[in-house]
Design a protein that fits this description.
5 strands, Rossmann fold, five-stranded parallel β-sheet, alpha/beta, 2 domains, Hypothetical protein af1432, 14 helices, 335 residues
């Protein structure tokens, strides 16, 4: 039995492709995006071949279906298009990883397949490593009984606020991932500090303030996570330069990191913690505007966080629904 590959196109295309591939490959044949989706789930092919000649709408739909689904986005797509820069660019924009003329030169076709499979293996190994990091982040959240669901809510809130701010799709995805990973450095912070019901001492604060740098060091070796490093390292900075760890000021504090920070604070102060009473949605936004008045946050981004929280229905709306925390009022804190 040969290597399973998907062939998406009309009968003539599939027959010509089968002849070029030879007996080393087993074709899973399809002629539509719907059929391709079913085949991808059932057979899990190693490579997809898609006919995009003539500006094929069906072929374009297959490419976008493959690259748009989390379960198949790493599947290599080799597309076939008419010669010409415009056709090649269109195929790449549809999601093709390689573009060839049709019928393809046999030797080049097999070389492209080998290249695609090597790249997929390398990418999957990176993905596996990334999953280990995300699992560590979940372990951090599990250390604190009061923060269950925190990272997921922070990511969702940051993405919605980012969308309202007009950030591009790639940056919004970084915010979603940053929501999960921003506090991964707390895995290096003792539990008695993380779960302390009351204000931290100066020495404890020094230890706690190391978590952004620890998180950066954990994620830095993985190239696939390096775009998240500014969010992880700087989510405790302040616009007036009094934040940590680098004291960034003004425009040096990137907007995505600011949005993630606001989402983080919003969720922290609207959920039950051992060291403070949760705030209502309205009170939380007022609190953030108060911090903006001190020069720490951006008022416009605070407004977007409020709108995003309302859209996602995050935060209670009635004071009477909020229980008191274990810590005395004099020992409440907000992180």
């Amino acid at each position: 039995m040969g290597i399973s590959v998907l062939a998406a196109g009309d009968l003539a295309f599939r027959e010509a492709l089968a002849a070029a591939l030879g007996s080393d490959y087993a074709l899973i044949e399809t002629d539509s995006a719907t059929a391709a989706a079913d085949a991808l789930l059932a057979a899990r092919p190693a490579v997809a071949f898609v006919d995009l000649r003539g500006g094929s709408a069906a072929g374009s739909a297959v490419c976008r279906r493959i690259k748009g689904a989390a379960s198949t986005r790493l599947l290599p797509v080799i597309a076939f298009a008419e010669p010409g820069e415009d056709q090649t660019v269109a195929a790449l924009d549809d999601g093709a990883d390689h573009v060839l003329p049709f019928p393809p030169p046999r030797a080049e076709l097999h070389a492209r397949i080998r290249s695609a499979l090597r790249n997929r293996l390398a990418t999957e190994r990176l993905e596996d490593a990334s999953q280990v990091i995300f699992a560590l982040a979940n372990a951090v959240e599990a250390k604190d009984a009061y923060t269950e669901g925190h990272t997921e809510r922070v990511g969702a809130l940051a993405v919605e606020a980012g969308r309202l701010a007009g950030l591009d799709e790639e940056t919004c995805e970084a915010l979603r991932q940053g929501g999960v990973l921003h506090d991964i450095g707390k895995i290096g912070i003792p539990n008695e500090i993380i779960n302390k019901a009351g204000r931290l001492t100066d020495k404890e604060r020094i230890v706690m303030n190391k978590h952004p740098m620890i998180g950066e060091r954990i994620c830095e070796p993985l190239k696939s996570l390096r775009h998240l490093l500014p969010i992880i390292r700087w989510h405790h900075e302040k616009l007036d330069g009094t934040g940590y760890p680098d004291g960034l000021k003004g425009s040096l504090f990137p907007v995505p990191a600011q949005i993630l920070q606001l989402a983080d604070i919003y969720d922290a102060i609207t959920t039950d913690r051992p060291y403070h009473r949760a705030r209502t949605r309205v009170n939380a936004v007022e609190f953030l505007h108060g911090e903006a008045n001190k020069g720490w946050r951006d008022h416009q981004l605070v407004i977007l966080i409020g709108r995003a929280a309302e859209t996602l229905n995050l935060g209670r709306t009635r004071e009477e629904d909020i229980p008191p925390p274990p810590a005395p009022v004099s020992q409440w804190r907000t992180e």
